[in-house]
Amino acid sequence: MRRLLPILSLLTLAGCVRAGYGGSADGRVVAPGGDQGVTGEPGAPPACPAVCGGCQGGVCALHCSTAPCVCPVGWACSITCPVGGCPGVDCSRATSCDVQCSAAAGCNGPVLCGSGPCHVRCGTGGCEGAIVGGKGPLVVDCALGGGCNGPIDCSASAACSVLCGSHCEQKITCGVGACEVQCGIGGCQGPVDCGRSCACSVTCGFDCPKVTCPPACAGRCLAADACDTCP
């Protein structure tokens, strides 16, 4: 069994790209059209979009079933997909997204993230399609029972963190920001490409996947082709 150096937090890696959590000056999420409500009164809360199952604290709650799930433009969304429920999730124009694919085949289509933070949680067989990050940081949790059967593409993301547990079946592609991938025993069955990343940390429970390291790792990649965090 090979053990690598402890994983450093993505938020403390020097020189890495950091992304902000958009919104108003006081921290609230602002819908398109500025910080005005339905009445146009300054400071009034924005109207909850009709597509939402409800809004609380500026977050739109979506419970999708057979139709693709689309977060309204300029909103933060909390998305829940039931068993076999979401043929696609589109957060490409959201300020942030939290996507729950914990049910079996809950997300059986692609999950698209946007310019804000995006967190995708995959249960047993929960994420059957690709997970594609936007410009914001992407966190993917596949450790809830072995849930990521599609590729994970963070190539456009400010930072990427993937917890594979026992099952990341296909390729993980990182971007120019910090990339952190944790693989359980046999958890990473596909390659990890962090060749463009400012920092790369890959840990393996038993056998390491094929890892493309950043130039800063030259001469420091281990025999298992895994590289520790780079300056």
What's a concise summary of this model?
By secondary structure, the chain is an all-beta fold. The chain is 0% helix and 28% strand.
Helix content: under 10%
SSE order: EEEEEEEEEEEEEEEEE
**Number of extended strands:** 17
Give, in spatial order, the strands making up the sheet with the most strands.
Answer: 1-2-4-6-8-10-12-14-16
Taking all Cα atoms into account, the compactness measure Rg is: 18 Å
Q: What gross morphology would you assign?
A: globular
- The proportion of strand residues reads 25-35%
The secondary structure category is mainly beta
Q: How many helices?
A: 0
Mean pLDDT: 77
Could you give the distance between the termini? Answer: 26 Å
Which runs of at least 5 residues are low in confidence (pLDDT < 50)? 1-40
